C-alpha cells in the first residue's frame, strides 16, 4: 500500500508514442524502444527537474527508480510501474483517466518485456561519443557509390524495399545545382554537362558547383538562420544595425572552405585568439546578432541578463542541438541539464563589453571599421603614420613653451579674436553686457539692438566677465536672424551653462511649435546636445542627438553644423570643440523648414523653455563650419577673454588654455605638424566614410560575477557560479581557459559527442529535406532518434577526421547513389515509407523562400550576381514597416531600392526583425529573432498569390518572355522548348506540350483582344519592356511564363 499510495499522487500524462520497437526475438534497446516512451510521457514529472518531480519518483536514472521500488528488474509483476500501467481506472491506472491519454497495448507490453529482461538503462545516444562503425553488409553492393549508400541500402533491404532508379541527367543537374548553389543551372552549365559523356561527368559538375562563389552564398543563408542575423536591433524602435560585414565573412568562410572547427572558434572567440586579425574580429559578430533594445524604462541589468541568455541558448542549439533554454527557470524536465549548469554555461557570455542599451544607432559599441579590400593596406599603414604624427606633435608641445612665453608677454585680446572665423557670420550675440533696455548684437556684420524682456540676471561668464541668464518669463527675440531653408548650409552654437534641474529644452530656436514645429533649433535632451530641422514633425523632419550628456553647472560650448543636404548625415554636433557620436532619431526631411516666427533665445516660439540657464556668445553662420573652425570658435573665444584680462594675474590653468590655443593658431612649427596630422586624418576619414563597421565581441578585463537566477529573473540572484559546461557531456580539459575561447575549443574536441553530429545532421537536412535526426534542434530525450544512427556516427567521425572539411562532406552527400535516386514514388513506398525516412527515393521538397525568388530572377535573366555588400530593399507592399514601427524609427518608412539593387540574391535582402520581407515571410522565412535550425515548410494559397502577383515575379516572367522571344528561335515550338529548358532544365513531354500550346494560344488571343491590359501588364516592374515586341505578344508569353513559374516542379527542388 505504501508504494501504491506514493504512485497514486502521480499526475503524469502518458502520450501514446509508437517507437521503432523491438522485433520478436530481438532484445529491447532502452534508447530505441523505452526512452521515447518515458521521455515523452514521464520525465516531465519524474525526470531531472527536482522542483517538478512528483512523489519523489525519478525514472530517468535506474538507481533512483529501483530505490523508489518502482522497478524490480526481472520481475515486472512486482514492479509498481508495470502494475499501474496495466491497472484499471479504479485501481490507479497510469496515465490517469483525467489526462485523456492512454498507452497502446504494444507500449505496455514493451515496458513489461523491458523489465522482464532486467530493466537495463543506456546513456542517451547523443551523449556517447560517435565512433566509426564498420560498413554494413548488403546484398546489392554494386548499387553503392560511396559508404553512405551501404548504410541506406542495409535499412532498405531489411525493410524489404529497393532503392529507386537513378534520376535522369536533367533532373540530377537541376537538383545538384540548387543544392550546392541555390540557383538553377545556367545555360552554359547545362550544355557542358549534358554534352559530357565521360564516366565522371557528374563528379566534374559537382566540383565546378562547389568552386562557384554562389556555393558560399547558399550555405551562408542556412547559417544566418542559426546565427539569428538581421539588419535591425529587433526591439522598441527596431532601428538599423550595420551587420552586413559579418554576413560577408560567413559567405567568404564557406567559399574558402574554412574548416568547421576554425569556423566555430572564430565566431565564438575570434577576439581571444593570439593577435586576432580584422577578419577574426568580424567573425565574432555571431555573438552580436542577438536582439537588443534602447527602450526607456527598461532595466540595464535585465537587458544584459537577456542578452547573455540568448547567447547561451543560441550556442546550445547551433552546436549542441539541445534545448538548454528549458533550464532557465528550473532544471530541464527531460534532459540532464540542471538550472545551475545553464547559468554556468551562460557565464561564458556575460563578460562582454556590449552595453545594455543599443542607443538606436547603427554602430553600437564595440565596433571596428572595416574598409573596402582595396583600402585595407593603406588603412593599416595609416595607423602607424598617425601615431608618428601625434608623437611629433607631443614633442613640439614640450619644446614650444619658451616661444609661447615670449609671445605672451606682448599679446592682447585682438591676437586671439582676429583668428576666430568671421566669414559669413550671420548673427552674433555676445550676451555679456546690456545698454539701457537692449542687448547689442550684430546681424550680417551690422549692429542691431534687441529688447530685453525683463531686468537681466547675470552670472560669471566663460568668455566675458558676465553672462546672461535666461529669464523665467518672456524671451529675447530677433526676427531677422536664422532664416534658412533646408538646402542651405548653416552652423550655430553658444556657450551654455545648464542647471541640474534644467536639462531639456531649446537653447535657441527659429521654430513655430504651433504649425507642426516647422523650423530648426539648438536643443538639449537630458543634457545631450541635439538639433531638429523640421517641416512637419515627426513625419517630415530630421532629429539628431549626441550620445553623451554634458555636465550641468559647468560651462560647455555647444555647436551644430548642417551641410544643407536634407539628411541627418549632414548634421555634425560638437561639445567643447569635440565631435560627438550622433544618434539619429528622425531622417525624413522633404519639405521646407522656413518659418515666419523670429529667432528666440531659450525657447521655441511658445514652448520648450530653458529658463534659468546661462548663455553667452551665440553665433550663427550662413555656412557649415569645419571641425577645425568649430575648435577655433571654441578656444578662440576663450583665449580672447583670457588675453583681455591683461591686468589680472593669470593662473597656470589660464596660461595652459591660452598655450593650447596659441599652438594651433600661432605657432608655425606646430601648425605644420597638425597640418600633416589633419591630412592623415582626412585620408583616414575618407576611407572610413566608404567603409562599413563590424559589430565585434570584446572581453572585459575583469569578468563580473555570475549567479543562478531564480526563475530566470535578473534581480533574483541565488548561488554564485563560474563558467562551466553541462555535466552530461565530457568536461573541459583542466588547462583550458574558462572563457569563450576555451568553450569553442571544447565544442570541437575529438571526444565531444554532439558538435560534429549536430552539424552533419543539419547539413544533411539542407540536401535531403530532413535530418537523420528530424528534430534538428533537439538531440535530447524528447527529440526523435536518428533514422540511421550508424550512418550519423560514421558521417560525424568522417567529418571530424577529414579536418572538418565542409565541401568534402557535401561532395560525399551529392555523389552518393542515395542522393542520385529518382524522387518518383511507388504505391509500395507511399505505404511503407511515406515520409522517406528510409531514403527509398531521391529528395524532393518545396524550396525555401529565398530560393524561390532567386530561381525566378535567375531563370528570367534579371539576377544580379554581385557578391557581398550592404543589404538591399527590393519590391515590398506599402505600409508593412509602418504598421509595426514606432514614430522616429529609422526603419519606419520602407524606401525601395532601384536599378541593380532590385535584383540581388535574396540573401542580401534587408531583414527587419519586426517585419521580415513580406514575400519571404509567407514562405516560412523566420523573423531571425532567435536561433532557427529548421524552418517549417507549409503550402498555403497565399504563397500562390505571391508567385502569381508580386511585382518581382510578374516582372521576372515578362523578362523571361522577352528572352524567349528574342533568343528562342522563330517558331512557337522552338520558343516553347527554349522556355522549358530555361525553367525546368529539361524538354517538354508530349502530353505537357499539348497543354502548354493550348494555353499559349488562349493567352495570345486574349491579349490581342485586350491591348490595354497587355500594355499595363508588360509595364510591371522597373525594368523596361522591349519596345520592339508588340505588347499583346509579350503579354501572352509573360502570362505563360508566369503560369509555368508556379508549377510544383519549379517551386520544388
Cα shape: globular
Span from first to last CA? 61 Å
What's the helix count?
A: 36
CATH topology of the domain at 421-645, what is it called?
A: Jelly Rolls
Helix content: 25-40%
Helix vs. strand class: alpha+beta
**What's the overall average pLDDT, rounded?**
93
Share in β-strands:
5-15%
- Poorly predicted runs: 1-20
Task: Provide the CATH architecture of the domain at 421-645.
Answer: Sandwich
Topology:
Blueprint (H helix, E strand, L loop, with lengths): L1 H7 L21 H12 L1 H4 L15 H6 L12 H6 L19 H12 L30 H12 L10 H13 L5 H9 L5 H11 L1 H14 L17 H12 L4 H10 L8 H6 L16 H21 L18 H8 L20 E4 L5 H24 L1 H8 L4 H5 L7 E5 L4 E2 L2 E6 L2 E6 L5 E4 L5 E4 L6 E3 L11 E8 L7 E8 L5 E8 L2 E9 L3 E7 L8 E8 L8 E5 L2 E2 L2 E6 L11 E3 L12 E8 L5 H18 L7 H14 L2 H22 L2 E4 L10 E4 L7 E5 L18 H8 L7 H14 L20 H13 L4 H9 L12 H6 L16 H12 L57 H4 L19 H9 L1 H17 L4 H13 L5 H20 L1 H8 L12 H15 L2 H4 L2
Antiparallel strand pairs: 1-20, 2-4, 2-19, 3-4, 4-5, 6-7, 7-19, 8-18, 9-14, 9-19, 10-11, 10-18, 11-12, 12-13, 13-17, 14-15, 15-16, 21-22
Helix pairs in contact: 2-6, 8-10, 11-12, 13-23, 15-16, 17-22, 20-21, 24-25, 24-26, 28-31, 30-31, 31-32, 31-35, 33-35, 34-35
Amino acid at each position: 500500500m505504501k508504494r501504491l499510495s506514493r504512485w497514486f499522487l502521480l499526475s503524469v500524462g502518458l502520450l501514446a508514442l509508437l517507437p521503432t520497437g523491438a522485433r520478436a526475438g530481438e532484445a529491447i534497446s532502452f534508447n530505441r524502444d523505452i526512452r521515447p516512451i518515458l521521455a515523452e510521457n514521464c520525465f516531465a514529472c519524474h525526470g531531472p527537474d527536482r522542483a517538478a518531480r512528483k512523489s519523489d519518483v525519478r525514472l530517468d536514472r535506474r538507481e533512483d527508480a529501483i530505490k523508489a521500488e518502482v522497478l524490480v528488474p526481472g520481475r515486472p509483476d512486482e514492479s509498481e510501474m508495470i502494475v499501474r500501467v496495466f491497472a484499471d481506472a479504479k485501481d490507479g491506472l497510469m496515465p490517469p483517466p483525467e489526462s485523456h491519454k492512454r498507452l497502446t497495448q504494444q507500449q505496455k507490453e514493451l515496458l513489461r518485456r523491458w523489465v522482464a529482461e532486467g530493466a537495463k538503462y543506456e546513456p542517451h545516444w547523443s551523449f556517447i561519443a560517435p565512433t566509426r562503425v564498420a560498413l554494413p553488409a548488403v546484398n546489392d553492393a554494386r548499387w553503392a557509390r560511396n559508404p553512405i549508400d551501404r548504410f541506406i541500402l542495409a535499412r532498405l533491404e531489411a525493410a524489404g524495399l529497393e532503392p529507386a532508379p537513378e534520376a535522369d541527367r536533367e533532373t540530377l543537374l537541376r537538383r545538384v545545382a540548387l543544392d550546392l548553389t541555390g540557383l538553377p543551372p545556367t545555360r552554359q552549365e547545362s550544355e557542358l554537362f549534358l554534352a559530357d559523356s565521360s564516366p565522371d561527368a557528374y563528379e566534374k559538375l559537382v566540383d565546378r558547383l562547389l568552386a562557384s562563389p554562389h556555393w558560399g552564398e547558399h550555405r551562408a543563408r542556412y547559417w544566418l538562420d542559426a546565427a539569428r542575423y538581421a539588419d535591425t536591433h529587433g526591439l522598441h524602435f527596431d532601428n538599423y544595425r550595420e551587420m552586413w560585414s559579418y554576413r560577408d565573412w560567413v559567405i567568404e568562410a564557406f567559399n574558402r572552405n574554412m574548416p568547421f572547427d576554425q569556423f566555430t572558434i572564430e565566431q565564438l572567440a575570434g577576439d581571444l585568439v593570439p593577435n586576432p586579425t580584422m577578419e577574426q574580429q568580424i567573425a565574432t559578430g555571431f555573438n552580436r546578432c542577438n536582439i537588443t533594445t534602447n527602450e526607456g524604462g527598461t532595466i540595464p541589468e535585465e537587458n544584459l541578463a537577456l542578452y547573455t541568455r540568448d547567447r547561451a541558448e543560441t550556442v546550445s542549439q547551433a552546436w549542441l542541438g539541445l534545448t538548454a533554454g528549458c533550464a532557465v527557470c528550473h532544471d530541464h524536465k527531460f534532459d540532464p541539464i540542471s538550472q545551475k549548469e545553464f547559468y554556468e554555461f551562460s557565464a561564458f557570455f556575460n563578460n562582454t563589453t556590449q552595453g545594455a542599451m543599443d542607443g538606436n544607432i547603427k554602430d553600437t559599441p564595440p565596433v571596428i571599421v572595416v574598409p573596402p579590400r582595396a583600402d585595407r593596406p593603406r588603412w593599416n599603414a595609416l595607423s602607424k603614420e598617425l601615431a608618428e604624427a601625434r608623437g611629433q606633435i607631443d614633442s613640439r608641445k614640450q619644446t614650444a613653451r619658451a616661444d609661447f612665453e615670449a609671445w605672451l608677454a606682448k599679446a592682447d585680446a585682438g591676437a586671439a579674436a582676429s583668428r576666430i572665423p568671421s566669414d559669413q557670420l550671420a548673427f552674433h550675440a555676445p550676451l555679456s553686457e546690456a545698454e539701457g533696455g537692449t542687448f547689442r548684437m550684430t546681424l550680417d556684420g551690422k549692429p542691431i539692438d534687441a529688447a530685453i524682456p525683463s531686468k537681466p540676471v547675470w552670472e560669471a561668464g566663460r568668455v566675458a566677465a558676465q553672462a546672461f541668464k535666461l529669464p523665467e518669463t518672456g524671451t529675447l527675440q530677433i526676427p531677422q536672424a536664422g532664416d534658412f531653408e533646408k538646402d542651405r548650409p548653416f552652423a550655430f552654437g553658444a556657450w551654455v551653462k545648464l542647471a541640474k534641474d534644467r536639462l531639456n529644452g531649446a537653447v535657441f530656436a527659429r521654430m513655430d511649435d504651433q504649425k507642426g514645429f516647422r523650423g530648426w533649433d539648438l536643443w538639449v535632451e537630458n543634457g545631450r546636445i541635439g538639433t531638429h530641422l523640421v517641416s512637419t514633425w515627426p513625419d517630415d523632419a530630421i532629429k539628431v542627438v549626441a550620445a553623451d550628456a554634458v555636465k550641468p553647472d559647468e560651462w560647455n560650448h555647444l555647436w551644430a553644423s548642417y551641410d544643407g543636404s536634407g539628411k541627418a548625415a549632414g548634421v555634425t554636433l560638437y561639445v567643447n570643440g569635440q565631435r560627438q557620436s550622433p544618434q539619429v532619431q528622425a531622417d525624413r526631411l522633404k519639405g521646407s523648414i522656413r518659418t515666419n516666427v523670429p529667432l528666440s533665445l531659450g525657447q521655441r516660439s511658445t514652448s520648450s523653455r530653458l529658463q534659468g540657464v546661462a548663455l553667452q556668445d551665440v553665433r550663427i553662420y550662413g555656412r557649415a563650419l569645419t571641425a577645425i573652425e568649430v575648435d577655433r570658435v571654441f578656444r578662440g573665444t576663450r583665449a580672447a577673454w583670457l588675453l583681455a584680462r591683461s591686468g589680472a594675474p593669470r593662473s597656470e590653468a589660464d596660461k595652459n588654455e591660452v598655450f593650447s590655443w596659441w599652438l594651433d593658431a600661432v605657432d608655425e612649427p606646430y601648425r605644420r605638424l597638425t597640418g600633416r596630422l589633419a591630412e592623415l586624418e582626412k585620408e583616414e576619414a575618407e576611407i572610413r566614410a566608404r567603409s562599413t563597421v563590424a559589430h565585434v565581441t570584446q572581453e572585459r578585463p575583469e569578468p563580473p560575477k555570475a549567479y543562478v537566477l531564480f526563475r530566470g529573473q535578473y534581480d533574483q540572484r541565488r548561488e554564485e557560479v563560474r563558467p562551466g559546461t553541462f555535466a552530461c557531456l565530457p568536461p573541459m580539459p583542466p588547462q583550458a581557459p574558462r572563457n569563450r575561447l576555451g568553450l569553442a575549443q571544447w565544442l570541437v574536441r575529438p571526444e565531444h559527442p554532439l558538435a560534429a553530429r549536430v552539424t552533419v545532421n543539419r547539413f544533411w537536412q539542407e540536401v535531403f529535406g530532413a535530418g537523420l535526426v528530424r528534430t534538428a534542434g533537439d538531440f535530447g530525450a524528447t527529440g526523435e532518434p536518428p533514422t540511421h544512427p550508424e550512418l550519423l556516427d560514421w558521417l560525424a567521425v568522417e567529418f571530424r577526421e577529414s579536418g572538418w572539411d565542409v565541401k568534402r562532406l557535401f561532395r560525399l552527400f551529392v555523389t552518393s547513389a542515395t542522393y542520385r535516386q529518382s524522387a518518383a514514388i511507388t504505391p509500395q513506398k507511399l505505404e511503407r515509407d511515406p515520409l522517406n525516412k528510409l531514403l527509398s527515393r531521391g529528395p524532393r521538397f518545396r524550396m525555401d523562400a529565398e530560393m524561390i525568388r532567386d530561381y525566378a530572377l535567375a531563370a528570367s535573366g534579371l539576377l544580379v550576381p554581385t557578391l557581398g555588400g550592404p543589404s538591399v530593399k527590393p519590391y515590398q507592399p506599402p505600409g508593412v514597416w509602418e504598421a509595426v514601427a514606432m514614430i522616429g524609427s529609422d526603419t519606419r518608412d520602407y524606401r525601395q531600392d532601384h536599378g541593380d539593387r532590385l535584383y540581388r540574391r535574396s540573401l542580401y535582402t534587408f531583414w527587419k526583425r519586426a517585419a521580415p520581407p513580406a514575400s519571404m515571410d509567407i514562405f516560412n522565412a523566420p523573423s531571425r529573432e532567435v536561433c532557427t535550425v529548421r524552418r517549417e515548410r507549409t503550402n498555403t494559397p497565399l504563397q500562390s498569390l505571391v508567385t502569381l502577383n508580386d511585382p518581382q515575379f510578374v516582372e521576372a516572367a515578362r523578362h523571361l518572355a522577352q528572352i524567349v522571344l528574342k533568343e528562342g528561335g522563330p517558331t512557337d515550338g522552338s520558343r516553347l522548348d527554349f522556355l522549358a529548358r530555361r525553367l525546368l532544365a529539361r524538354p517538354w513531354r508530349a502530353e505537357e506540350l499539348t497543354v502548354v500550346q493550348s494555353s499559349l494560344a488562349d493567352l495570345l488571343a486574349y491579349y490581342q483582344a485586350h491591348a490595354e491590359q497587355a500594355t499595363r501588364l508588360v509595364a510591371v516592374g522597373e525594368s523596361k519592356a522591349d519596345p520592339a515586341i508588340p505588347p499583346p505578344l509579350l503579354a501572352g508569353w509573360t502570362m505563360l511564363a508566369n503560369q509555368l513559374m508556379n508549377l510544383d516542379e519549379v517551386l520544388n527542388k
